Task: inverse folding
């Protein structure tokens, strides 16, 4: 999604949002809610897979994030409509490198996602904001293919 709001205004990043901690929402319920809100697709908990957990220390020089990276396990067949959060486009994996992406997405999140798709990873990023961030892969369960 090309973001129409901060954070990441004008950059391409996956759909997502904030966990509703006031209601005790689970990360899986949050993923399903965000799929509905941002993609217009109803998804059940059984249709989302947790692929990664990323903690970002000092993102944007001022905040800390905990990201739960989910994958919708069924393919989208139509392009989601644009909305207040941004507009959507489908891209081939090879096209991601040419897009304006958030620094942490480009450096490690997308590479970790592709390496661990169908598995799981946990990573920590100490965000610098101007140079390469410092990354620590804390857990890796990559799916091995023959």
Result:
């Amino acid at each position: 999604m090309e973001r129409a709001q901060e954070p990441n205004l004008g950059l391409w990043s996956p759909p997502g949002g904030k966990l509703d901690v006031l209601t005790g929402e689970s990360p899986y319920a949050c993923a399903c809610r965000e799929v509905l809100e941002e993609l217009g697709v109803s998804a059940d908990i059984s249709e989302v897979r947790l692929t990664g957990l990323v903690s970002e220390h000092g993102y944007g020089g001022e905040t800390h994030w905990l990201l739960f990276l989910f994958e919708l396990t069924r393919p989208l067949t139509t392009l989601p409509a644009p909305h207040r959060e941004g507009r959507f486009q489908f891209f081939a994996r090879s096209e991601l490198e040419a897009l304006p992406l958030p620094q942490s997405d480009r450096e490690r999140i997308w590479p970790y996602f592709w390496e661990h798709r169908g598995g799981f990873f946990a990573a920590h990023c100490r965000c610098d904001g101007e140079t390469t961030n410092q990354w620590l892969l804390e857990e890796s369960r990559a799916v091995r293919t023959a």
Q: What stands out?
A: The longest helix spans residues 103-116. The chain has one domain: 2-141. The chain has a mean pLDDT of 91.
